[in-house]
Write a structure and sequence with these properties.
The chain is mainly α. It has one domain (about 1-290). It is about 80% helix and about 0% strand. The chain contains 12 helices and no strands. Helix 2 (about 30-50) packs antiparallel against helix 8 (about 170-195) and helix 5 (about 100-110) packs antiparallel against helix 10 (about 235-240). The longest helix has 27 residues, at about 60-85. The model has no long low-confidence stretch (mean pLDDT about 85).
């Protein structure tokens, strides 16, 4: 169990770097995610092929895993869209409502009882988001897209836990990346029609950033998260990921000077989100000691 918690928090640290690429890469969010999944799927397939670690999976199971991968792709598109419409700090803070959606949907999907305490902890984070939304009107569209991203992230994590339990981590990740790429390929023409761009080709800096994003912050991060989910509940994983904004905001302040864009409501809301993490951590430690 301790090993899985270590892997979980390393993946959270890597996730903290992910938001920066939303600002660094000039492509729109749809193309950004399309290239990210393409590069990640190709690189990871080559790694598994060379290492002879590619698991044979029935086509029915492949389709299920690919469907989960499409959820991941849509989550990423809305996440980077939130960052581009607002800023890194707003985008990653909205991600914190993932625990709220997970607390609602996990009992329904996995046929479990509702945990009222988990819902209460999650509502503290939601209240923090609501405070930011109410008092900082500049980024309301970005906040709305960010909340959609959190809802999709919750669905992905829950369904990922179900399909990941039956197969090895490497194969699940490969088919999720492939499914997300193929699904997004079908949707991208409609997306670009609604949101036209001047070019679909990345610049050289964009290409380098996309490689780093694909290899380190996609393959590495997702492998660690899938492994953690084998012994940790989806709610605990998503609530722990509320720490991601802390890392991302520090990086955004250091690299993009975002502190000047944030007001007091943002910091109060962030404090409420951090409180929800502390309460859940305290509860988890209490359960383990008893």
């Amino acid at each position: 169990m301790n090993n899985r918690f270590i892997k979980l928090h390393i993946s959270i640290l890597l996730a903290g770097f992910t938001g920066l690429f939303g600002k660094l890469i000039s492509l729109n969010e749809g193309l950004l995610v399309w290239y990210r999944m393409l590069f990640a799927a190709v690189v990871f397939y080559c790694i598994l092929l060379i290492g002879h670690k590619l698991e044979k999976i029935a086509w029915r199971e492949k389709l299920k895993i690919c469907g989960v991968g499409l959820l991941l792709a849509l989550h990423w598109v809305s996440f980077f869209g939130s960052i581009k419409l607002a800023n890194i700090s707003i985008g990653v803070v909205c991600f914190s409502t993932t625990s709220f959606f997970t607390a609602l949907w996990e009992p329904l999907i996995l046929r479990q009882r509702f945990a009222l305490r988990e819902l209460f902890f999650s509502l503290i984070a939601v209240a923090g988001i609501a405070l930011i939304f109410q008092f900082d009107t500049r980024y309301r569209t970005g906040i709305g897209i960010g909340i959609l991203s959190a809802a999709l992230a919750a669905l992905f994590t829950i369904t990922n836990k179900k399909v990941g339990a039956r197969h090895n981590t490497r194969s699940v990740l490969l088919y999720e990346l492939t499914g997300g790429f193929l699904g997004l390929t079908c949707l991208l023409p409609f997306y670009l029609h609604l949101f036209p761009v001047d070019t679909i080709l990345p610049t050289l800096p964009d290409f380098l950033y996309l490689l780093i994003l694909a290899v380190i912050c996609t393959i590495g991060l997702q492998l660690l998260q899938i492994q953690a989910l084998k012994g940790i509940s989806a709610f605990t994983v998503n609530l722990s990921y509320n720490l991601e904004p802390i890392y991302s905001i520090i990086l955004a302040v250091l690299f993009f000077d975002e502190a000047r864009e944030l007001n007091y409501a943002f910091y109060i809301g962030l404090g409420m989100i951090f409180l929800s993490v502390l309460l859940q951590t305290r509860r988890a430690l209490h359960i383990r000691t008893n």
